[in-house]
Amino acid sequence: MELTTIWFLIVGVLLIGYFVLDGFDFGVGMALPLLGKDDTDRRVVINTIGPVWDLNETWLIVAGACLFAAFPEWYATMFSGFYLALLVILLALILRGVSFEYRHQGKGREWTRWFDQFIFWGSLVPPLLWGTAFANLIQGLPISRMDNGGWLFEGTLLTLLNPYGLLGGVTLTLLCFTHGLVFIALKTEGDMRERARKLARTAGLMTIVVAAAFLLWTVVQHLENPTLPLIIACAAIAAVALAAGWVANAVGREGWAFTGNAAAIAFALLAIFSALFPNLMISTISDAESMTIAGAASSQKTLELMTWVAVFTMPLVLAYQAWTYWVFRKRISRDAIPAGAH
């Protein structure tokens, strides 16, 4: 297997890791106003991800760095074409992170209420825009080759807001929301756990319907794609995993439900990457204008150096993250929140 293909897979794995891990962070943030009856409840919800949310976001940073180093043309074209959308995502992530840190400063109820709103919107906007962006990548975009060998995005932000793109955004948002609710049920006790499970059952049904429509539309769009069997296989596994996660949550097996939701997100993204391969960006102007993996990759020496760095560093990163989750594995209850805490 060529290094260009290996690094396409590595970037894909990093992005899958990001959406599986930060995905439930987004879901927890979206659930904050729905499950938080009072400030203690809201503290319980926030504390489920308190030790890990910033660690989960590092997957995006690493994925972006690898994207920049391995496929600079993809990085440049996507970041220039999706500039406004990515700027909004960045601002939302900053707002959410600041809110986690400043919410508890004890400046009064109004202060806390504003930061709770920032957490909600900072958790809702990124998956909505990420899903829209990825759906547009596999549907195709108006990109063309420039004289200097690069690619130019010839659309606008409104180009991305098409029915299929928006359906992709809604699908990822619902997946993250359900994922987060199941994580709250997995990490809490008593009434909070039961309310999270109940809301996850309702949200899960909506997610199954919307995700099924998106995956079916994706398959139909790529009937002539040589990777169609792989697309169908990944989409089918994602659908089965999502349904299995819903059943597991309904019978009170939150661990299996969380695993099912994580697998659904992972295989849905694998279906997207399968539909994209061997391209990085599909041109709606002409097939000849599409950005291929080989055409946008860095030099062979650069990829070789990056491969050696990844071989030595990735196991350490994975081990540290696994250790962190093990340390903070216990459930949280209202009794764990000190009286008067913010």
From TrEMBL:
<keyword id="KW-0249">Electron transport</keyword>
<dbReference type="GO" id="GO:0009055">
    <property type="term" value="F:electron transfer activity"/>
</dbReference>
<feature type="transmembrane region" description="Helical">
    <location>
        <begin position="305"/>
        <end position="328"/>
    </location>
</feature>
<feature type="transmembrane region" description="Helical">
    <location>
        <begin position="263"/>
        <end position="285"/>
    </location>
</feature>
<dbReference type="GO" id="GO:0070069">
    <property type="term" value="C:cytochrome complex"/>
</dbReference>
<protein>
    <submittedName>
        <fullName>Cytochrome d ubiquinol oxidase subunit II</fullName>
    </submittedName>
</protein>
<dbReference type="GO" id="GO:0046872">
    <property type="term" value="F:metal ion binding"/>
</dbReference>
<keyword id="KW-0408">Iron</keyword>
<comment type="similarity">
    <text>Belongs to the cytochrome ubiquinol oxidase subunit 2 family.</text>
</comment>
<dbReference type="InterPro" id="IPR003317">
    <property type="entry name" value="Cyt-d_oxidase_su2"/>
</dbReference>
<dbReference type="GO" id="GO:0005886">
    <property type="term" value="C:plasma membrane"/>
</dbReference>
<keyword id="KW-0479">Metal-binding</keyword>
<keyword id="KW-0472">Membrane</keyword>
<keyword id="KW-0813">Transport</keyword>
<feature type="transmembrane region" description="Helical">
    <location>
        <begin position="77"/>
        <end position="98"/>
    </location>
</feature>
<keyword id="KW-0812">Transmembrane</keyword>
<feature type="transmembrane region" description="Helical">
    <location>
        <begin position="230"/>
        <end position="251"/>
    </location>
</feature>
<feature type="transmembrane region" description="Helical">
    <location>
        <begin position="6"/>
        <end position="32"/>
    </location>
</feature>
<dbReference type="GO" id="GO:0019646">
    <property type="term" value="P:aerobic electron transport chain"/>
</dbReference>
<feature type="transmembrane region" description="Helical">
    <location>
        <begin position="198"/>
        <end position="218"/>
    </location>
</feature>
<dbReference type="GO" id="GO:0016682">
    <property type="term" value="F:oxidoreductase activity, acting on diphenols and related substances as donors, oxygen as acceptor"/>
</dbReference>
<feature type="transmembrane region" description="Helical">
    <location>
        <begin position="118"/>
        <end position="144"/>
    </location>
</feature>
<keyword id="KW-1003">Cell membrane</keyword>
<keyword id="KW-0349">Heme</keyword>
<dbReference type="Pfam" id="PF02322">
    <property type="entry name" value="Cyt_bd_oxida_II"/>
</dbReference>
<keyword id="KW-1133">Transmembrane helix</keyword>
<feature type="transmembrane region" description="Helical">
    <location>
        <begin position="164"/>
        <end position="186"/>
    </location>
</feature>
